[in-house]
Amino acid sequence: MTRQCILIVEDEEEIQELVAYNLAQQGYGVVRASSGEEALRAVGRGLPDLVLLDLMLPGVDGLEVCRRLKGDPATGQIPVLMLTAKGEEADVVAGLELGADDYITKPFSPRVLIARIRAVLRRKAGQPASETEPVRVHDLVIDPGRHEVLLAGEPVRLTLTEFRVLHTLARRPGWVFTRRQIAGAVHGDELVVTDRSIDVQIVALRRKLGPSGRRIETVRGVGYKLRE
User: Fold this and answer.
1) Could you give the dihedral angle defined by the CA atoms of residues 28, 219, 203 and 155, in that order, rounded to the nearest 10 degrees?
2) CATH class of the region 135-226
3) 146-174: per-residue pLDDT in tens?
4) Are 98 and 70 a contacting pair, CB within 8 Å?
């Protein structure tokens, strides 16, 4: 079986060494880059299975690297996991809106990092549900064709917007969605959905889903995800 290859883009040598060592211990192939330009050249030589991308880089920064990767059809499907210092919420939001798949803050636990990488790679391996295919997550079943939500076999009455928010989160469990991404996904010709109104919809969803509503997690400063 071919080893999965991860491109580490990190200009701090100690962090780069730490990450590379732990990935190698888990059986991953590793390619390293210390700048944005070097990272783009490395991707040009061979597509990695995932890019672990620091945001604060010399020259071309991490956000620009992410934008170029996600904007190119040849590289747009490569998962990007951002590494960011605490407090850079605006950068995290910007990265996720550019298409980054997840993020982890510094300082970080190598075990947590490996777990997050595995989760992103699992999501890449799975096929996202179509717009009309029923979605099953935990004890929830969301059926877009029937516009029906069942919780442990019992129907849950949701508004159109609540249904669309839940369906958006459930189609990719574990993924972090910004409020703007959720608003864009649920927007219809008959609806005007603002970023702030998403918070109201989430509160209503949690209430209607009872204890299962706790699976809709708030990612502070970013948005929401449905726990895997």
Assistant:
1) 0
2) mainly alpha
3) 788 999 989 998 877 788 889 989 988 88
4) yes
